[in-house]
Amino acid sequence: MPRDRDPFWDHVEEVDGRWKCKYCEQRFSLKVSVSRIKSHLSGVSAQGVEVCRNAPAEVHRKAYEAILSKRQKLMSLVPIRDQGQASVSQEMEVDTPMLEQLERLDRMTTDMLEQPQAPENLLV
């Protein structure tokens, strides 16, 4: 059974043999993974992806939540230390700067939802 199509593909369109963000002029290879699209839309400057400054706040929030959800799911798969020795998968630490940015974006999103502000305040 094939996977469901990721809804974040709806935020790009094919133009001249490349994906183009519907909110800005950022272009991606047709071979790009949806995770790079999510990073672009999330408003978090990380992973070497240019941040989209024109996407609506709701798109920023949903992309951020999708990234955070994936990270939490991956971290739940890391086994607990067994007799004081870490497994190989446990040694793969969370990218601290990325996690800090995600937490910062979470606080900013929460503040924004409580007191509506301009979407550019969401970007980090």
TrEMBL record:
Highest taxon of the lineage: Eukaryota
Gene Ontology MF, one: zinc ion binding
Coiled coil stretches, renumbered: none
Domain BED-type: 3-59
Keyword field: Metal-binding, Zinc, Zinc-finger
PANTHER family in UniProt: BED-TYPE DOMAIN-CONTAINING PROTEIN
Name of the protein described by the UniProt record: BED-type domain-containing protein
Protein species of origin: Turnera subulata
